[in-house]
Design brief:
single chain; mainly alpha; 11 helices; about 0% strand; disordered N terminus
C-alpha cells in the first residue's frame, strides 16, 4: 500500500520530506507521545528543583545565578514559580528533602526517558526493544547521566561566575577573560545539550547507526527547542496575558504548553532522521531500478 503512495509524491525533495514528516507526525501519534512526555517532565521538575535547591542550600551556592541562566528560555511566570521552591528549600536545607528530591528526580526522569526512547524507536521503525532488562539498564544509565549533566551544568553556571569574580578581584584575572566566559556559558550549554540528546538517540538503537542517521535530527531538535522556547517566552511576556485570563493557574498552563512544545521537538528530531533514512533508501532503490 505504501509503495504507490511514495511514487506519487512530488519530485522536489524538500516538499516530499515535508509531506513525509507530516504523515509521520499523524501515523506515529506524535501528539499523544508528546503529551505523555510532557506529563512526566512536569512531575520531574519539582522533585528535581527540590533536590537541586537542597544541594545548593547545603553548598551555599547562589540560587539567583541559576534563575538568571534559566531566564533565557523560560517565561517569567514559570521562573517565579520555580523561585519560590528554590529560595524556600535553599534557605531551609534538609537532608530528608535532599533524598526525597533525589528519589523522585530519578523515578520521573526514568519514565520520561523511557517514553522518549519508545518514541525514538517508533521513528526509526525499530519495534519493541530486544531485551527488556537491557532496555531498562539503558534507561537507568541515561537518566543518571542526564541528572549528572544537569547538575554539573548548573554548578558550572553558578560556581564558575563566583570563581571568576573572586579571581578578578584577588588574582588579577583579566576582565575580558571573565566576560568571555560569561558570554560562552550558553553556547557551552548548547553543546552539552547536543551531546546529551545525541547520546539518547544513539543509545535507543539496537545497532550502531551512522553519524548521518543521528546528528541532523539532534541539531534540528535542539535548534527548534531553543527557538520555540525563546519565541514562546516572548509571546507569553508581551502578547498572551495568561495571568489576566486565567489568574494563578496561568503559570501551570504556560509550563505545560512549554513542556509540550519541547517534547514535540525532541520527538520530531528523531522523526526527521527516520524521514531522511527512508528518503535515502528510496533514492538508492530508484538508482538500482534505473
Amino acid at each position: 500500500m505504501e509503495e504507490p503512495e511514495v511514487r506519487q509524491l512530488p519530485k522536489n525533495r524538500f516538499v516530499r520530506g515535508s509531506y513525509l514528516m507530516v504523515r509521520r507526525y499523524l501515523s506515529h501519534n506524535v501528539a499523544i507521545q508528546s503529551a505523555a512526555l510532557a506529563f512526566y517532565l512536569l512531575f520531574m521538575i519539582f522533585p528535581l528543583s527540590i533536590f537541586l535547591s537542597s544541594l545548593l542550600g547545603m553548598l551555599h551556592l547562589d540560587v539567583s545565578s541559576v534563575l538568571s541562566a534559566a531566564s533565557q528560555i523560560l517565561p517569567s511566570s514559570v521562573l517565579d514559580l520555580l523561585e519560590v521552591y528554590l529560595n524556600y528549600v535553599g534557605k531551609n536545607p534538609s537532608l530528608r528533602l535532599l533524598w526525597f528530591g533525589l528519589f523522585f528526580s530519578i523515578y520521573f526522569p526514568m519514565r520520561a526517558t523511557n517514553t522518549l526512547m519508545r518514541a525514538v524507536r517508533t521513528a526509526y521503525h525499530l519495534g519493541s526493544p530486544r531485551g527488556a532488562l537491557r532496555h531498562q539498564l539503558k534507561t537507568l544509565m541515561y537518566t543518571a547521566l542526564l541528572i549528572v549533566t544537569l547538575a554539573l551544568t548548573l554548578m558550572l553556571l553558578t560556581v564558575g561566575r563566583m570563581t571568576l569574580a573572586y579571581a578578578v578581584r584577588h588574582f588579577g584575572l583579566p576582565v575580558d577573560v571573565a566576560t568571555l566566559w560569561v558570554r560562552l556559558r550558553f553556547p557551552a550549554m548548547a553543546v552539552v545539550m547536543y551531546f546529551a540528546l545525541y547520546l539518547l538517540y544513539a543509545m535507543t538503537q539496537d545497532e550502531r547507526q551512522a553519524q548521518r542517521n543521528l546528528y541532523p535530527g539532534v541539531l534540528a531538535a535542539l535548534l527548534g527547542w531553543m527557538g520555540s522556547s525563546f519565541l514562546f517566552s516572548f509571546y507569553v511576556e508581551h502578547i498572551a496575558g495568561y495571568s489576566v485570563l486565567y489568574g494563578s493557574i496561568g503559570t501551570l498552563i504556560v509550563l505545560l504548553t512549554w513542556l509540550y512544545l519541547s517534547a514535540v521537538f525532541l520527538i520530531m528530531g528523531a522523526e526527521l532522521n527516520g524521514t531522511l533514512i527512508s528518503m535515502r533508501r528510496e533514492r538508492r532503490t530508484e538508482k538500482l531500478s534505473d
